[in-house]
UniProtKB/TrEMBL annotation:
InterPro entries for the chain: AraC-bd, Homeodomain-like_sf, HTH-like, HTH_AraC, HTH_AraC-typ_CS, RmlC-like_jellyroll
UniProt-listed SUPFAM superfamilies: Homeodomain-like, Regulatory protein AraC
Protein name (Swiss-Prot/TrEMBL): AraC family transcriptional regulator
Span of domain HTH araC/xylS-type: 185-283
GO molecular function, one term: DNA-binding transcription factor activity
Keyword Cytoplasm: no
Organism: Paenibacillus kyungheensis
Length: 291
């Protein structure tokens, strides 16, 4: 029996009670909040402590300095470590309406580099090696809650600075922090363990604490192809093993290796192996019987 995860939906209008469609808080994470998605964009910064961050059902450890940008439609929740009373997991949350921020950005020359962060459907991760994000979150949090003269301009400016720094850290990370061979081994372990699940490039990159560009270059370097092609290969190999060693129906094997569209599975399997699944089963078993 499969237990369905509870996923709540949070609405921005509930939080946007001030004069701008931005809401900023700083909280000690607990187990009270359920996994949720939202109709706004969200910047999270781990300020203190350790714990885990569950994104689309996949849990990854987090620590001080971890930053995430989460788009609409991504489910997530933070969970503190068991020793959270002594070392609480403190997270800054900055949520905002993407369309409103795009309007503000339209008045900034050269802001095109930031716009993909507001429209991309993949989430982003960065690690704050030099405490630059931390300082910006401290400042925007103070401006938002003190509401001094000009605070709205200040809040928009700090949010844009955070996004610009995230863009720079993403584009410069390969030069600053080349992935080690152990990173590649960890990537392979993750894919070989979870190939049958729905896993995006961004999810794997975040779990490995590298950028999406770094992960793409790792795959080109080691396999000559993309991660999606590599996952396809793992799934087809698993399907071949199941066709050879079990009597399961084709539709069941399709589901077991991670596909939910049988016709697409048939098409992909034939393209990769040269035979339809049923024909492959007959052929491979005939070879086994002659040996």
């Amino acid at each position: 029996m499969t237990i369905k995860r509870r996923i709540d939906t949070l609405i921005g209008d509930y939080f946007f009670t001030k004069d701008i469609p931005i809401y900023i808080n700083r909280v000690a994470e607990s187990y009270e909040l359920h996994e949720h998605m939202h109709d706004f964009l969200e910047l999270n910064y781990v300020s203190e402590g350790t714990g885990s961050h569950v994104i689309n059902g996949i849990s990854s450890p987090v620590k001080k300095g971890d930053l995430f940008l989460l788009p609409m439609g991504i489910s997530h929740v933070y969970r503190p470590s068991p020793a959270s009373d002594a070392d609480p997991l403190i997270v800054y949350n900055c949520i905002f309406d993407a369309n409103s921020l795009l309007e503000v950005l339209s008045t900034y020359p050269g802001s095109e580099v930031i716009k993909p962060l507001l429209t991309d459907q993949q989430y982003r991760y960065s690690y704050d090696r030099f405490q630059e994000f931390h300082r910006l979150f401290q400042q925007v949090y103070e401006e938002y809650h003190r509401e001094r003269a000009g605070w709205i301009t200040a809040v928009y400016t700090y949010v844009i600075q955070i996004l610009l720094l995230l863009h720079r850290s993403d584009t410069e990370s390969e030069v600053l922090l080349p992935p080690s061979s152990s990173t590649w081994e960890d990537v392979l372990h993750e894919l070989h363990t979870h190939y049958h699940q729905s896993i995006s490039v961004a999810e794997i990159a975040a779990k490995m604490k590298i950028s999406v560009r770094q992960l793409h270059r790792l795959f080109v370097k080691h396999t000559g192809s993309s991660m999606s092609h590599y996952v396809q290969m793992l799934r087809i190999q698993a399907a071949c093993d199941l066709l050879r060693t079990t009597d399961q129906q084709i539709s069941a094997i399709c589901e077991q290796v991670g596909y939910h569209d049988v016709s697409y599975f048939h098409h992909l399997f034939k393209r990769k192996t040269g035979s339809a699944p049923k024909a492959y089963r007959r052929f491979i078993r005939s070879i086994d019987h002659t040996q």
